[in-house]
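Title: Comparing notes on inverse folding

I've been comparing how different people in this forum approach sequence design from structure. To keep things fair, I'm posting one structure and asking everyone to reply with a full sequence. Here's the target:
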């Protein structure tokens, strides 16, 4: 008979199996052939996210992609602090 510890270990293992981090190398993905940078620039609003302990108290995440005259892409992230309701 499987005890409560066996059931808990099984549930814990099933829960952590879906996490993204792992040992090893990242897979190589080819760049998109028809990527349109100008359509990508601007503000993006977070709809979904993976759990990260550093984001527990954050909400309303906005990321802004901007192109500098030099051609560099600047990324700015803004979040609302869930505890104090102010921008970080």
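Reply #1:
Here's my take.
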């Amino acid at each position: 008979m499987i005890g409560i510890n066996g059931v808990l270990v099984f549930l814990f293992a099933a829960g952590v199996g879906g996490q993204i981090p792992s040992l090893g190398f990242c897979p190589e993905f080819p760049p998109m052939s028809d990527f349109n940078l100008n359509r990508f620039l601007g503000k993006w609003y977070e709809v979904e996210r993976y759990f990260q302990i550093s984001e527990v108290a954050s909400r309303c995440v906005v990321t802004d992609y901007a192109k500098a005259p030099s051609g560099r892409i600047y990324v700015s992230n803004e979040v609302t602090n869930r505890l104090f309701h102010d921008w970080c």
